[in-house]
Amino acid sequence: MHPSKYTDLAFQKCINPNCGAEFDCAQVLFKCPTCGDLLDIWYHWDKIEVPGKLSEFATRWAGRDNPLDLSGVWRFRELLNFCDDKYKVAIGEGQTILQQNDAVAEYVGMQPGRLYLQYEGLNPSGSFKDNGMAAAFSHAMMVGAKSCACASTGNTSASVALYAHSCGLKCTVFIGSGRIAFGKLSQGMDYGAQTVQIRGDFDDCMRQVQAVCTKLGLYLLNSLNPFRLEGQKTIMYRIIESLRWQAPDWIIVPGGNLGNSSAFGKAFYELKELGLIQQIPRMAIINAAGADTLNHLVNSKKLSWNGGQVNQAIIDQYYSELTARNFSPHTCASAIEIARPVNLKKCLHAIDVCTGVVRAVTDEEICDAKAIVGKYGLGCEPASAATIAGLKQLRAEGIVGTNERVACVLTGHPLKDPNVTVDYHKEKRGPFSNPPIEAPNDLDQIMKLIR
Ligand SMILES: [Zn+2]
Predict the structure, then answer these.
(1) How far, in Å, is the centroid of ligand 1 from the Cα of 245?
(2) Mean pLDDT for the chain?
(3) What's the whole-model pTM score?
(4) Separation of 6 CA from ligand 1 center, angstroms?
């Protein structure tokens, strides 16, 4: 054990209210050893000097030569105060922007000035995962980890591999065979991680990595890791920061393993509890139709948080149905191609906290929305565009008002998955396809083609 001076400021607690077991932050657990449920990080807020107003965090900008003040995660460090500064890892994460985008607003049917895109693809490894890794690797340093591992649909492996070599940790990433976007696969190899391709899908990888980590004592970096979600809370702080310290009316987020939605719900719950925001935004979580477990369980089976008394029988029954029909999720949005999301219960809590809604969108809708974000914004990977497609649906249903202030979280960079982009444009898959034109090697004919 490596006791930290901050250990008495935070602790790990089982999310199951019937258990509620508590553990020191210096313990490496990832699941409640008493009942097997997920763990959350809790804080003794009365012992932490949290600013009285969120706007006080703006003073950190003056100290940007300090990597912790520059970091888009650690400049909010009082709100995720689980370890001493000396363990904190920062490699430039969270230098992201919130862009108001009226062209995309028009596409989804919103008034100008009301739609914002949060570009998490601007992180060092090109996805939102870096927020969580900054926090989780800090915990890994705090407990003295030497090797780490993760299962991944791609973005996690890229981010883990980057942070692992930055921290001097050995790193193994597990990916499903043939189910990873090219850009992401290239990153893990380039950053020096040992890459193990398992013949199976993400859910198979997830099972294997947990077993390997337990048997070999590797530090696990999947979103089961509650410290990762603490880092991901900061995406919401930065959206509020960009809106001059006001919360939006809606947050729209893709739903895969449900770590982000869980983290965002926790962020807002804590901010409200601390009196730092007046109103908790509503949240919409968008599944891909080919991996729509959350949508099915919440909308068809009416599964809910229910004060922590989640009806596990509904989940178990659905998962056995999936097994019985040998179901494997399928969507072009590979980052959210997950049928058994590990943070399901935490996400149900977030839906409860944020009066959330869940929707599913088709791959065609995702690809069209992605083309719109590419044409009028900075671009994004397919899973990110599910937010725009989902918002379009929620606008059509009248659930999101045309004049409400909405922030869509674009989780990954467009170069993460060039194959989907090239296929959409070159094979004219949708109304926004912009295919290359074949031209003879002849100046006159080439000039005639220029529009
Ligand atoms: Zn427990």
Answers:
(1) 36
(2) 95
(3) 0.96
(4) 23
Q: How far is the CA of 433 from the centre of ligand 1 (A)?
A: 50
Cα 336 to chain center, whole Å?
10
What is the bridge-based pairing of β-strands 406-410 and 219-220?
A: unpaired
- Tokens 């989907």 locate to 420
d(CA 339, CA 256): 8
d(CA 108, CA 114): 11
Tokens for 247?
Answer: 């919360």
Q: Which residues contact 47 (CB under 8 A, 6 or more apart)?
A: 8, 9
Give per-residue pLDDT as tens, 33-90. 999 999 999 999 999 999 999 999 999 989 999 999 999 999 999 999 999 999 999 9
* C-alpha 139 – ligand 1 centre gap (Å): 21
Q: Please give the distance, rounded to the nearest whole angstrom, from the Cα atom of residue 24 to the centre of ligand 1.
A: 14
**What is the residue whose two structure tokens read 């607003």?**
105
User: Residues near 21 by Cβ (< 8 Å), separated by ≥ 6?
Assistant: 13, 14, 32, 33, 34, 35
Instruction: For 174-187, give one letter per residue: b (16+ CB within 10 A) or e.
Output: bbbeebbbebbbeb
Q: Within 13 Å of residue 366, how many CA atoms lie on the same side as its CB?
A: 26
Contact 181, 423 (CB under 8 A): no
Distance from the alpha carbon of residue 142 to the mean position of ligand 1, in angstroms: 23
Helix or strand run (H / E) with residue 50: none
pLDDT-based confidence at 7, cuts 50/70/90? Answer: low
> Sign of the C-alpha dihedral, residues 285, 289, 290, 294?
positive
Distance from C-alpha of 186 to C-alpha of 125, rounded to nearest angstrom = 11
Q: How far is the CA of 38 from the centre of ligand 1 (A)?
A: 7
22: CA distance to ligand 1 center in Å?
A: 8
First and final C-alpha spacing in the chain: 67
Residue whose pair of structure tokens reads 């008493």 in the numeric block: 34
> Any idea how long the chain is?
451
* Buried/exposed 322-346: b ≥16 CB within 10 Å, e otherwise: beeeeebbebbbbbbbbbbbbbbbb
- Helices H / strands E in the chain, number of each: 16, 13
**How far does residue 417's CA lie from ligand 1's centre (Å)?**
38
Ligand 1 centroid distance, CA of 299 (Å): 27
Between CA 186 and CA 264, with CA 151 as vertex, the angle to 5 degrees is 100
What's the pLDDT at 425? 98
